[in-house]
Structures are given as C-alpha cells and as structure tokens.
Amino acid sequence: MDAMRAMLEKRKSGMKFAGVPSFCTANDLVIEACLKQAMRFGDDVLVEATANQVNQFGGYTGMKPADYRDFVYEIADGIGFPREKIILGGDHLGPLTWQNEPEKEAMEKSIELVKLFVLAGFKKIHLDTSMRVADDPKDRPLSDETIAGRGAVLYEACEEAYQELLKKNPAEVRPVYIIGSEVPIPGGAQEAEESVSVTEPEDVEKTIAVYRREFEKRGLKDAFENIIGIVVQPGVEFGDEDIFHYNRVNAAKLTESVKKYNNIVMEGHSTDYQSPEELKEMVEDGIAILKVGPALTFSLREGLFALSFMEKQLVPEEKRANFIEVMEEVMMKNPSNWKKHYHGTEGELAIKRKYSFSDRCRYYFALPQMKEAMEKLFRNLDETEIPLGMLRQYMPVQYVKVRDGLLPRTARELAEDCVVHLIEDYNYATKLNYMTGDVFCR
Q1: pLDDT (tens digit, 9 = 90+) per residue, 232-242?
Q2: Residues 6+ apart with CB under 8 A from 240
Q3: Distance, CA of 421 to CA of 239 (rounded, Å)
Q4: What angle do CA 396, 400, 406 make, to 5 degrees?
Q5: pLDDT per residue over 287-338, tens digit each?
C-alpha cells in the first residue's frame, strides 16, 4: 500500500497521530534537507510543486512536471535517498495560471497540465478549480457546481493518464486526489487581516455532495475511493508579520463534522509558522496533511543570513560573497515577485524584502547571481572555519549539534540544518512520541 493510503488506514484504525507533512518547494537545499531528515527515520517524504512553479510552459522555475521529478530525483541520488520513498505532489492544479483566458482555453491547458503531472509519476494531485476564468461572471462567486464540474473533468483526465501508465507498468501506483480550496493564492495572504474564517461544516458537506453528483454525471462512480482529502481553512494563515495560530476550539465544529467521512482527511494549507503543539493538535483533529512552503525557505534564509554575518567578521572585504547585499540588488533589479505583495515606506519595504513571513525572496534563490553568491559564501566559511564561540552567537541550535558531534561544521550543512530544525516540528506533529529538536546551550 502506498504511503498516503497507509496514513489514511492508520487513522481509520484509531491512530489519531498519523499524518503527513507536505513540503511544497522547488529549492534544492530545502529538498535536500527534507530528504536527509526523512532518511534518518526511513520515512517516505512528500514533496510538492504548485502549478505556478511547474507547468507545461515551465512555470516560474522553468521546469515542466518531468523536469521537477528529475530535479528531485537527482538530489535524492546525490545523497543516497531511495526514489521509491519519494511521493511527488502537484498542488493547485487547474486554471490557476490561466485565469485571464476563457474557460475553453483555460480548461484545455488545465487538462494538459494534470495529465503531464500524472504521466511524470506524481502520486498526490490537488485538483483546484476554485478560481474564476475570463468569461466567468465577476459579480458573484463561482457556483459549487461549476467548480466541481471542472474538477470532475480534470479528475477524468488524470485517470486517463494513469491508464496510460498502467500499459507500461501494471504495478503502477494509482494517484490519490485532494479536492477543495479554502485558502488564498499559494504562498500566503497578500494583505494583513484581522481574522481568518474557519470553513463551515455545511460548506464541506456541500462540496463533497456536489462533487459526488458531478462525478456520477461523468460515470466516475468510484472516484471517492481515490479522493482522500479535502482542503479546508482551519483558521491558520500568515502575512508579512502576522501569524494566525490554530485554535482547536474555534475549529471544533469543522473538525467534528468531517469525522463522519472516514475515508477523507482534511488538508491544511499555510500551516507555516505554527508551533509544534499547534501542528500536533491539527493532526489529532483530523487535519492530517500539513502543507508548508514559505517557512522552509524562510528558515534557509535565516541560516544564510547568519552565515553572512559571520563572513563579515571572518573574511577580508575584497573576498566576501556579500550574500545579503547581492539578494537585495537582485530583488531591486527584478521587483515583479515582490512589488505587488509588499507595501509601505522604502524603509519598511527594505525590511520586508529580507524578513517578511511571506518570504518573497525565495523566488530569487535559483537565479545565477544568487547561486553564485551562496556557493562563494559556503567556500569562504569552509576555508576559514567558523569559531565555535561565534557559531554559538549566530546559530545556537546548530552550535549544540556541532558541539555534540551530530553536525559537521560546514557552511552548507549548517544552512540546511536550519531547515531540518523546522522539519522537526512537523515530525513532532505526525509521529508518535517524537521529541522536538529544541536544544539548549548548556
């Protein structure tokens, strides 16, 4: 049995702790950190790409679905992580990037998109048709029937692609599917809000009922055997400097109502920056798939900045990588990925480019100038060797691991361990009796 269905079976048998973190990222260092941590426990690991990151036209990463698969596999091969323990996921698959086109063209491209994801071996597919396209009415929300009808079309396309895979490999694992979309656009809210509304139980019931009807119209009567989750808004979100934390009391009506669907779990998006205990409560309450994205690269950025601060004291000025300054220069020359998301004075914008929880700087990490500065930073510090006392000052968690012989004192490993420290929050939430990685400088 595949890992996603196995998680569902565990929960049906009463194991409330069973859950799956979903690491939504296209950053090579973050993916490597996720795989290394999973390898320590022999875990399967779910790595996802969104439709705006990866699509048939390359997305903002320049990768098509098969390219992203090969990208992840190459990282896995480099550290000896078994490919068969990687679950590839496609997130927000639908008309997300073609909202300015009429329905016919947007859906044709969406069909091609989902087929390419399935043919590339992606096994967790989030069908998201919740957004308007160009010829939808602008004065009212999309009807549940329209959303579910388009979702059924995409589900059927995925299943057709799966049948193609079966012809080549009769043992090919069938994808699992997620429906629904109760979240803002991928990457977190653009504007600060006063509160976040929890999904109403009636909306979940209606979504599931309408999907059932639309599937039956297309003769897809067994579709809900493969749909294992529904995206909900459990009251968690983040913005530039705001975090809305999980409150299980506020979410109680929702989480109780979904228990009657014993073949479906809830998927929570924007779980970034929740505490370990809040994440654990979410899993216990049935939000068993925990999506995290910007917090991963935020943690990597924290590590890279800490290394940069040490470089300024250890490396002569003419030899420095100046990663922080290079990042600022690149973001100012190419503002399209942050300009409409960050607001304020010039001083406030400068802070947000570096420290916003929305972490728009992640869109720049793969650019040649950034990669070059990062590699130079790593080389400079490895040639110098960071003093332990300085490491304790700037990276106290990693200092303890280095001190105790658990982590090499190399710049790349130190940066990646900042991501590992975050991943451990998700291990705590989805594993029985797991202790968090919080350490103390004693």
Answers
A1: 999 999 999 99
A2: 192, 342, 352, 356, 357, 358
A3: 22
A4: 135
A5: 999 999 999 999 999 999 999 999 999 999 999 999 999 999 999 999 999 9
383-390 contacts, C-beta under 8 A, 24 or more apart: 384/314, 384/315, 385/409, 386/310, 386/314, 386/411, 386/414, 390/310, 390/313, 390/314
With beta carbons less than 8 A apart as the criterion, state whether 406 and 365 touch: no
Q: Provide the whole-model pTM.
A: 0.94
Degrees to nearest 5, angle at CA 27 with 25 and 30:
85
With both helix axes pointing from N to C terminus, report the angle between 323-333 and 346-355 in degrees, rounded to the nearest 10: 120
Q: Who contacts 386 (Cβ-Cβ below 8 Å, separation ≥6)?
A: 310, 314, 409, 411, 414
Residue 244 has pLDDT above 90, yes or no: yes
Token pair, residue 363, equals: 């869109």
Tokens of 397: 């968690």
Q: What is the DSSP letter of 369?
A: H
CA angle at 50 for the pair 250 and 373, rounded to the nearest 5°:
110
C-alpha to C-alpha distance for 152 and 208, rounded to whole angstroms: 12
Q: Which whole-number Å values give the CA distances from 389 to 171, 386, 397, 402, in the listed order? A: 54, 8, 13, 11
Residues 20/176, Cβ–Cβ less than 8 Å: no
